[in-house]
Amino acid sequence: MEFILKEKIRIGISACTFGAKTRWNYRGWDYVSDLGRQGHDYTWVPVCPEVMAGLGVPRDPVRLVSGNGEDFWQGKAKVKNRKGMDVSFQLKEACQEALSIMERSKLDAFIFMEGSPTCGVYRTTLKERRLGKPPGVFGSLLLKEDLFLVPALDMQSPWKWWDWSRRLHAFVWLKHKEIKTKKDLYDVWHMLKFLCQEVDMPSARQLGTDIADLPKSIDQTHIEEWRSKTLRFLRQPTTLKRIQGNLQKHYKHYRKVCGLKPKDLDVPGAETGKQKFVDELKRAERRMAESGYSFAGNPVLYRPNR
User: Fold this and answer.
1) At the N or C end, where does the chain have fewer CB atoms within 10 A?
2) Pick the residue with more confidence: 44 or 134?
């Protein structure tokens, strides 16, 4: 079974984190540039619902009133700007149009601006403020889609992006993988289980138990239920402490299997930059992949046709 992606993953992204100055205060950040050459491994589709709503740049900042994004779509909450003007109707139409653009673009993932009352998923205000409840208006729609969701700020952390990207590749591969039999399901799980265990061991074991509990003859409904559950699992947030532990484990594994000497792969420590360590780890991974070795901790790789 081949665990290789040959097509670029298509990712939607909040435009203000793609270098566009679409924030209310005429600001923006180019977080994709923080990925270096890795940024070219993906196709990006930037959107900004607030600009698409015609609110303009610069503009008065908006906030959710009387609820969160879920309440907004049920007509229980509104979005108002600093002057108290209700912009709910404009934003509702813009969010739906942004979602349509994403559907036409056939996206597998979305990079969202956390803290935004529009695009925020787990937080809809600045870190030092506790106003409002997540998710945001657009964030609420994102959670309902079959998308891999990543906070934009995590693109600035080499360690966090290392964790997100390996799970993203597994997510996309599983999403599009043809599975017909229980044996196919076992084969898929055999390669994905170690990655899932690194996210949450007890929950990952349950995914394996779910397969064992299926009847010998399964239909597509069983397969899609398991696939959906596993896709949701792969995209769930984890902790930096857990990521650091996984990095150490990968480091030790590569050194052992490759027979690397200290000069080949720097020992991680206070004097070793996070980006340098991740780059060295990826070089070791590439060396192993070229020799035909597949490590289950990072099972799905992007290798385009040349």
Assistant:
1) C
2) 44
Beta strands 62-65 and 301-302, pairing class:
unpaired
* Residue 270: per-residue pLDDT: 47
* CB-neighbour burial class of residue 97 (10 A; exposed 0-12, middle 13-18, buried 19+): middle
Cβ count within 10 A of residue 255: 16
Q: Which residues pair with 63 in a beta bridge?
A: 80
Rounded Cα distance between 206 and 224, Å, is 16
Distance CA 80, CA 162 (A): 38
3-state secondary structure of 12: strand
Query: Cα separation of 228 and 5, whole Å?
Result: 20
d(Cα 62, Cα 78) in Å, to the nearest integer? 10
Q: How much is the CA Rg of the chain, to the nearest whole Å?
A: 21
Give this prediction's pTM.
0.89
Q: Is the Cα torsion angle 166, 246, 258, 294 positive or negative in sign?
A: negative
Nearest alpha carbon to residue 32 among 48, 16, 47, 9: 16
- Residue 188 DSSP symbol: H
Contact 41, 6 (CB under 8 A): no
Among the residue ranges 123-127, 178-182, 213-217, the one predicted with the least confidence is 123-127
Question: Distance between CA atoms of 155 and 167, rounded to whole angstroms?
Answer: 14
Give the containing element (helix H, strand E) for 90: helix 88-104
**Angle value at C-alpha 157, between 149 and 243, nearest 5 degrees:** 75
Q: Are 148 and 165 in contact (CB under 8 A)?
A: no
- Condensed to tens digits (0 to 9), the pLDDT of residues 141-157 reads 999 998 999 999 999 99
